[in-house]
Amino acid sequence: MSDYKVIVYGNGLQAVFAACKAASQITSGKVLLVVPDTTGKLGGIVTVGGQNYWDQEGTARADFQQKGSFYYTFSDYLFDKNGNKVSDYAGKGYSTDTLAQKFATMVGKRTNIEVMYRTDICDFATTGSPYRITSVTLKGIERNSSGYIVWKNETGVVKTGDIFVDASEEGRLARMANTSVTVGRYDWPWSENGKQLLDGADSTGRQQAATLMFKIKGVVPPAAPPSGTDRIVDANGAEWDYFYRSQNASGSTYRSDGKCCESAGGRVGLVNPNGPIKTFNDSHGGRYAFKGYNMARDGYDSDEWWINTLMIFHVDGRANERDVGTKFYPNNVVGGCWNVDKSWAEANNLLNNTTERKTITECIQSLGPQFTNAELVIRNGKVVTGEVLYLRETVHMSDVSTNRAHGTEDTNYHITMTASKDASTSEAAQTGADLAYKPTAVGVIYYGTDMHPYKIEEMKVNGNYVWGTEYTRDSSKSPPKPVYVPYNALTTRYVANLLLPGYAANMCSYAWAKARVAPNLAVLGDAAGVAAGYCAEYNASSSTKKWPYNLSSADITTLRTRLKGQDVRLDKKSYSNS
After folding, report:
1. Mean pLDDT of the region 317-342
2. What is the pLDDT of residues 233-286, one digit of tens each?
3. Could you tell me if 148 and 343 are in contact, meaning their C-beta atoms sit under 8 angstroms apart?
């Protein structure tokens, strides 16, 4: 008998929600949530990483595409700094600490969930017939004085499980256990419409640039918009969203609260050929660059904002310093790439260098008149930064290991490029490249194809910096469309008891650029959690086994029914794509 019915690995929304949903499906036994960061808090990027801006496509109303656990979180997270709910106002910005506590409370209510904080996997065991994971060996981790996360000096603890869920950014189990993953954009075609897309480094696969969030203050948003809207666009094209209050159940009538919660834009500073941002971007050897920003207020009554604007190129999100010399450290890191620890530590050193700090402040102040008096938030002599990097991409599970190659984005993944680009726009649509996914859909993702550049040269046109569709693939310039998520996008044929709601989901790099944002990861987490709990509960009382990989169509129908029963949306709204 295993120690746990389900073991979930990760700390983002997808991990937290997968653990909760799995726990809701079992009547005995426990779920283990292994949290591989050093903060002791839940939420990952959306809390300790500082990414407190919900990447919710379209305006934020009561009836948007993602329901389930994400909707529960979104609709009830607006609190002041003392943890008191602020009327019934909502918006896209929130306090990261308060949301982390909300997740802790959410998980704590499930008495059948055990959480191991500050812990990572240092080994695992498998068996055959079918091939599956049987246990993981866990050890404590801590951040050292150099900013690197290292193993604690302790003996590993073995934990056995029936079903495993890799909900991580790294894809640690997915890339190690009988793997069929590809790295970054390895699956792209070499060229598109006569334009070369890949280079020699893509023999491994470049990964999108990461970012390090940091805090600023002294921002003065524009005057509040008139009643009936919660967004204005300033003279520089930057969007400013305000906390709003719905006045009916559907959220179709609302009024602004008058306090700005988030902003996105920043092209004015980026594209200025004589501005400080161009000077900064040109002077850091292609390692760092400012991008068009997005930022959100750190809670309703805070003057501090988390800003997402500092990109770090050539980061291998699979590679951790603590794994050097072990099987977990990738043997094909592209030359010049830094591992996650070095990238985080060096970016913090950059922000805390006296000269660089002055330059970075000038860059922030160049973003527009609202930033004229903006400054970095300093505590204990250091800039306040996210505790983890905001990684955009690491690995993608492919369908058939021997078919991994450039140009396979439409043939070797369970969500393909064409299906995500040319998806249907409504539930009633009779055409759409993703319609084949509809019968087994366990969720719907909705976002634009949001790709960071893979190297700094890709954000330049005629020597000047751009931000937006200028640097992306031509095929990514289509409007946002909702995409059905077929159940098998969460599985791999090579590990029967492994579910993949994290970065290693079974979809191509292009499709991942839509799926990677928090609301969509929440959709994947809900689906994987219900599937994990369903299989584990069945296996506990039957001599025959149901493994995630080989569920029948009847089993998937049961999963869909259970997901609907937990307010997970499996249908599509209608979108104008305007």
Report:
1. 97
2. 888 888 888 775 544 444 444 445 567 888 988 676 677 778 899 999 999 999
3. no
Please name the residue ranges forming H helices in 12-67.
Answer: 13-25
The predicted structure's pLDDT at residue 577 = 37
The answer to whether residues 456 and 278 touch, using CB atoms and an 8 Å cutoff, is no
Give Cβ neighbours of residue 165 (< 8 Å, ≥ 6 apart). Answer: 6, 7, 8, 9, 10, 15, 18, 19, 22, 498, 499, 500, 501, 528, 529, 532
Among 144, 142, 198, 136, smallest CA distance to 168 is for 136
Full-model pTM? 0.95
More confident residue, 470 or 73: 73
CA distance 347 to 425: 41
For 393-405, what is the mean pLDDT? 98
Q: For residue 63, what pLDDT is reported?
A: 56
Do the beta carbons of residue 391 and residue 210 sit within 8 Å?
Answer: yes
Nearest to 475 by CA among 521, 416, 424, 411: 416
Higher pLDDT, 130 or 271: 130
- Whole-angstrom distance, CA of residue 222 vs CA of residue 423: 37
User: Is the pLDDT higher at 227 or at 493?
Assistant: 493
Residue 451's SS3 state is coil
Is the pLDDT at 576 greater than 60, yes or no? no
339 token code pair: 């591992």
504 CB contacts (<8 Å, ≥6 apart)?
166, 168, 171, 174, 175, 181, 394, 395, 396, 397
For residue 149, give every residue at least 6 positions away whose Cβ sits within 8 Å of its Cβ, in sequence order, or none.
37, 38, 141, 142, 143, 320, 321, 322, 341
Q: For the beta carbon of residue 386, count every other beta carbon within 10 angstroms.
A: 24
Confidence check: pLDDT of 300 > 90: no
Neighbours of 540 (CB within 10 A): 15
Q: Is 43 left (phi over 0), alpha (psi -120 to 50) or beta?
A: left
Give CA separation, 519 vs 57, 65, 222, 443, 483, in Å.
9, 9, 28, 11, 13
Task: Please check the confidence at residue 355 and state whether its pLDDT lies above 60.
Answer: yes
**How far is residue 134's CA from residue 141's CA, in Å, rounded to a whole number?**
23
- Measured CA to CA, the distance from residue 212 to residue 200 in angstroms comes to 27
What is residue 321's three-state secondary structure? helix
Closest among 39, 50, 43, 45 to 119, alpha carbons compared: 39
- Cβ–Cβ under 8 Å, residues 295 and 371: no
Query: Nearest-CA neighbor of 131 among 173, 88, 191, 96?
Result: 173
3-state class (DSSP) for residue 342: helix
Euclidean distance between CA atoms 354 and 347, whole angstroms: 13
Rg of the chain in Å (alpha carbons): 23
pLDDT at 273: 78
The two three-digit tokens of residue 440, written as one number: 């087994």
| SS3 at position 351 | helix
Query: What 3-state class would DSSP assign to 357?
Result: helix
Q: What is the pLDDT of residue 578?
A: 26
Spatial neighbors of 328 by CB under 8 A, at least 6 apart, are 122, 172, 176, 320
